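Lecture notes, part 5. Sequence design as translation. It can be helpful to think of inverse folding as translation between two languages: the language of shapes and the language of residues. The source text, in structure tokens, appears below.
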């Protein structure tokens, strides 16, 4: 569905363009008629001049050319012509006609007529023609013609001027639509930002800070935020209570099974099953915790600080097993993720790397255009490309030679997905074993999940 901003742009733009188009057509029609009226007025004036001159020399119409002083009447095919036709067919015309004649004399009427005509011997002209009866009783058809070239040129100039003017008005109108839309939508953008910022601060939105049309929505959002905070707080308390309630029975069962194992009873399968129960509970609690914060949360975590802590802890564990951990981390890396969740992800991945590496593992954290990239690599056997998707599934153990539940990667994937981060299993180019690459959302930014 289109956003409100795009809807306003499209509807406003269409309305502006329709209004401009209708206005341009109406104005062009009006101006075009004004041009024609002015052209016709000049043509009628010249017709009147011919009639006046003819009334003076009606006994000898050949003298008309001497009474009319317009140079264009003397220039051949100048675009301006006159013609006088007698009742018996005698024709007198301007020198500009040479031997040509203007059409239409046979259809003359006592009413002045204006019409366009084309004469192969002359050109496209507009003619003013009338049948005139003089005082001496003679009748004459008086016609004055003007080339349409100037009229068409003036119309074309008017059209081009209108197009340029209305193109400028259209640009200004569309820019006004954009500015108006931005002004109208700005309170909604502010509301979106305020909701995101005040969610973590546990503050209510002030209805007086928004237009009266948006104020009722602000009140509803305040109620919704309060209800969501209550639901999340209750679910977190329940998750914590559940974890606490299960830890004690689990610890008792583990102690009993351990005692039985020390008494030469085969408790391997039972202990392994208990390990898987604990891991599944841990995964479920982690997912519950992440679902109550996750991608919509505004929490922040100092990734550089967490990496330093894990460098010290896993560095000691690796040294104890005769292995090495090399860490490279850019300073000041801050991510949009709960500190407890990112540390659980790093702990699971480093624990897997320590378990499967032969002698070396590395941890690299750097800022990239897509977000913050963390790579954990080892020199172990790695995971074949065909088995990597299976390794990310819940409880998928590809190799049972090492202790574990097979849930480390699955838990890490669940937590990362909740925050819109990504995880990928690759082959380490430097060490030859497994490389786990995760891309984390930068504080203030967002990285969409691909899953």
């Amino acid at each position: 569905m289109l956003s409100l901003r795009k809807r306003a742009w499209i509807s406003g733009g269409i309305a502006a363009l329709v209004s401009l188009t209708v206005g341009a057509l109406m104005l062009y029609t009006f101006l075009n008629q004004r041009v024609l009226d002015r052209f016709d007025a000049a043509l009628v004036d010249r017709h009147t001049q011919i009639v006046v001159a003819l009334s003076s020399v009606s006994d000898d119409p050949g003298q008309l050319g001497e009474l009319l002083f317009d140079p264009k009447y003397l220039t051949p095919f100048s675009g301006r012509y006159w013609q006088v036709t007698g009742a018996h067919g005698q024709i007198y015309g301007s020198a500009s006609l040479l031997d040509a004649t203007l059409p239409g004399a046979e259809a003359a009427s006592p009413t002045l007529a204006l019409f366009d005509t084309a004469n192969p011997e002359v050109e496209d002209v507009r003619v003013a023609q009338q049948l005139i009866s003089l005082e001496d009783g003679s009748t004459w058809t008086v016609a004055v013609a003007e080339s349409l070239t100037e009229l068409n040129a003036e119309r074309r100039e008017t059209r081009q001027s209108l197009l340029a003017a209305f193109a400028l008005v259209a640009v200004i109108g569309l820019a006004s639509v954009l500015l108006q839309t931005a002004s109208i939508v700005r309170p909604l953008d502010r509301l979106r930002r305020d909701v995101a910022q005040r969610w973590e601060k546990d503050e209510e939105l002030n209805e007086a800070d928004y237009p009266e049309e948006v104020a009722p929505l602000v009140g509803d959002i305040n109620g919704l935020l309060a209800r969501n905070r209550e639901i999340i707080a209750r679910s977190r308390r329940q998750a914590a209570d559940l974890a606490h309630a299960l830890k004690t029975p689990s610890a008792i069962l583990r102690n009993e099974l351990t005692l039985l194992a020390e008494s030469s009873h085969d408790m391997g399968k039972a202990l392994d099953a208990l390990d898987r129960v604990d891991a599944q509970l841990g995964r479920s609690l982690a997912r519950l915790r992440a679902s109550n914060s996750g991608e919509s949360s505004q929490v922040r975590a100092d990734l550089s600080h967490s990496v330093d802590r894990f460098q010290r802890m896993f560095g000691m564990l690796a040294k104890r097993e005769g292995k090495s951990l090399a860490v490279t981390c850019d300073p000041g890396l801050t991510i949009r993720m709960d500190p407890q969740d990112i540390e659980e992800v790093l702990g699971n991945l480093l624990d897997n790397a320590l378990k499967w590496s032969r002698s070396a593992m590395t941890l690299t954290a750097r800022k990239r255009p897509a977000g913050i990239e963390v790579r954990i690599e080892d020199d172990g056997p790695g995971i074949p490309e065909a088995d990597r998707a299976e390794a990310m599934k819940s409880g998928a153990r590809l190799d049972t030679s090492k202790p574990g539940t097979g849930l480390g990667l699955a838990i890490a994937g669940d937590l990362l997905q909740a925050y819109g981060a990504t995880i990928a299993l690759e082959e380490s180019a430097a060490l030859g074993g497994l490389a786990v690459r995760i891309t984390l959302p930068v504080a203030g930014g967002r990285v969409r999940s691909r899953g």
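The translated text above is only one of many valid answers, since several sequences can fold into similar shapes. Confidence is low (pLDDT under 50) at residues 445-451.
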